[in-house]
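PROTEIN DATA CARD
Card holder: Flagellar motor switch protein FliM
Chain length: 333
Origin: Gracilibacillus salitolerans
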Amino acid sequence: MADEVLSQNEIDALLSALSSGEMDANQLKEEEKDKKVKVYDFKRALRFSKDQIRSISRIHDNFARLLSTYFSAQLRNYVHIAVASVDQIPYEEFIRSIPTKTILNVYSVEPLDGRIIFEFNPNIAYAMLDRMLGGKGSSVNKIDNLTEIETTLMSQLFEKALDNLQEAWGSVVNIDPMLEDFEVNPQFLQLVSPNETVVVVSLDTTIGDSSGMINICIPHVVLEPIIPKLSVHYWMQNENSKERKPEEYESISQNIKQTTLDMTAILGEASITLEEFLFLGINDTVVLDKSIDQALTLQVGQEPKFLVQPGKKKQKIAVQVLDEIKGGDQDDE
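Structure generated from the sequence above:
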């Protein structure tokens, strides 16, 4: 029941009754305390807790970062995507909130039941298409007459982005998303009943000079099997279980040992003028700062690590390590 708004005459009458003693303010307060009824709208059933909504928001924060990187690489343009809001609403309300003509992608997310919807605002979708076709990324709404080639290009771009969705949800469940349908009219999409609760994740998206929203609609039936995993308790347990096992350390150690390094033996250094360098000729000698009996420096990458002496091994030029060069915080530990 909606709150009633009093007219000015009704307010004046109420104040007059209170001042004359016809009504007792304390009695009104007691009657207010006795009211234990809480208004509840069954059409907007809240089936997810705030804790679970925060977990979904956390997952899609990661997804937004991955998607920004992916689209930036594919479109070769500035792309910024961030979570704007995460709400639970009836499916019918979601359908009414999006444009009558827009870009809709329907994905299955096996092994979870049901399907999810990605709604790309036409401003964003056409900016992407224009960049793919070599343009500057300008947005021209021509959704009523999309060609088959344009539809295919958009579908391929959105389908390849599913790897990012799979990675973002990987901490909770391993999904295998697949593009099942491409639609422009939301009235043709009846995935669930109108009153079914859905989670709508809105991503604020900027591509070059164009901006708009990407809306992700996830029905309750999709998330129902994994709802227990969307709690803080599960996330904390998952974080604690990330401690590596001994066999994992052994595997990492073996892989590190097989890593190749660039090593350079420095015979010596010399300083000459530019004029001397320009007039260098055959049989000229450049004197280095190392004598023949001094150890050479062996660099790993750009860092000096060992003192070595040159020689041969199996008719190949080689060096023998004499000592280790210690320096820096890591070597002192």
